[in-house]
Specification:
With 408 residues, the chain is mainly alpha-helical. It is 78% helix and 1% strand. The chain is built from 17 helices and 2 strands.
Length: 408
């Protein structure tokens, strides 16, 4: 067997084989698609694409510079332009996807012999996939409403354009403000609203809200509570929203447990009964809220989800976060105070500064305070029917956790 690392000719043959495979893969996809579309003739199929990739590879091997590859690419471009002109003359408005794919195939073949074999292979597979999803893209584009498209663009704007350019520096009173951190919360809340919209639309109100609660609770149960509470305006049942909010806070308890385990496992032993009891009560409440929904289809038809993503509530939340950050200076830059107290208590317990039981009580008290805050938030934003359900369940969770800690 030849040693590819020390035998240049063997390596070149491998690269040529990769280039041919790329060309054949893309060309085969084009030929299959054209046959499925019942085209009488196709501009380029498996053979043409394979030869184009081979031309890119051979030109790259024969000329270490760019003269021959550029000349070959220009020749292919000329042939492609003539073919496209003839096709467009017979069928005005004809697309140029296959022609562009031919250019890409030539470049991928050239890349395969210029030390970018893996990049070329990945590019070839990605190109074939992009070409094959034409019908899916058209179906998605037809199903997407104008509001949904604009919502997606707004989310991309605040997350991809605005967030990266914001300074990541502390400023203001007590250096308690950070524009990037505050805007990151805007992005997160807007993203949760967007995620919730699509999950509710495709999975239904019950399952969609519950999935949003579980996913959002992994990062911020407070932001998730805010986002889900707003769906009362869309006609989602308060009990469905309550189940999602409880799910987010059960995930918060799990997150606290993992954080304590990483800092001081002995504290987790003392804290585990309280977290487990509160989590079990929360899980039971979720099942109770989701019980026997005999009117699910009727409720789904009444939903009016409205705007997929509203930035205003996220901005209000961010402004409130900034006020709290200044008021508490170093102590509470975020609503999620339980995480900060968990860190402090865990570290002090690990160092022997405080007893394990005292650390467990401190963490549980922080979690309970955080939960009480979110119960009030659900009432103010989502209304009394939601607030009563969430508040009652949270009281039961806190009581169960406190009782378990006392008797353990």
């Amino acid at each position: 067997m030849p040693d590819f690392a020390s035998d240049p000719m063997a390596a070149d043959l491998v690269h040529l084989a990769v280039a041919l495979a790329i060309g054949f893969l893309i060309g085969f996809e084009r030929e299959h698609t054209h046959r499925a579309e019942a085209r009488e003739r196709s501009f380029a199929g498996a053979r043409t694409f394979s030869l184009t990739a081979l031309a890119g590879a051979v030109s790259g091997l024969a000329d270490p510079g760019l003269i021959l590859p550029v000349a070959a690419l220009m020749a292919i471009a000329l042939l492609t332009a003539v073919s496209y002109w003839a096709t467009a003359k017979d069928k005005p408005g004809a697309g140029g996807t296959t022609e562009i794919a031919l250019f890409v195939t030539f470049i991928l073949g050239l890349a395969a012999v210029r030390g970018h074999v893996l990049t070329a292979a990945v590019g070839g597979v990605a190109t074939a996939i992009i070409l094959s999803i034409k019908e899916s893209v058209q179906r998605w584009a037809s199903a997407l409403s104008e509001d949904e498209l604009y919502a997606a663009l707004r989310f991309l704007a605040i997350s991809v354009i605005i967030l990266p350019v914001l300074p990541n520096e502390a400023f203001g009173p007590y250096d308690a403000l950070n524009l990037r951190d505050i805007w990151l919360m805007v992005v997160f809340i807007s993203g949760l609203s967007f995620l919730g919209y699509w999950l509710i639309k495709f999975a239904g109100a019950g399952r969609g809200v519950l999935l949003t609660g579980f996913a959002g609770g992994l990062a911020s149960s407070t932001a998730t509570t805010l986002s889900l509470s707003r769906f009362t305006k869309s006609g989602v049942e308060p009990r469905e929203l309550a189940a999602g909010i409880v799910a987010a806070n059960v995930m918060m308890l799990l997150r606290i447990g993992l954080l304590v385990a990483a800092l001081a496992r002995e504290v987790l032993v003392a804290l585990a009964p309280g977290l487990a009891a509160a989590g079990l009560v929360g899980a039971g409440a979720m099942l109770w809220l989701r019980r026997g929904d005999n009117h699910a289809e009727e409720q789904e038809s009444m939903l009016k989800l409205g705007n997929p993503m509203e930035i205003k509530p996220a901005l209000v939340f961010a402004a409130l976060l900034a006020i709290i950050s200044v008021a508490a200076s170093f102590g509470a830059e975020r609503f999620g105070q339980s995480d900060a107290i968990t860190l402090i208590a865990g570290r002090q317990a690990a160092s022997g500064s405080i007893a394990m039981n005292a650390a467990a009580l401190a963490v549980m008290f922080a979690a309970a305070s955080n939960i009480v805050l979110k119960a009030g938030m659900s009432w103010v934003i989502g209304g009394k029917p939601l607030g009563v359900r969430v508040g009652a369940i949270f009281v039961a969770m806190i009581a169960a956790g406190a009782f378990a800690l006392v008797v353990s």
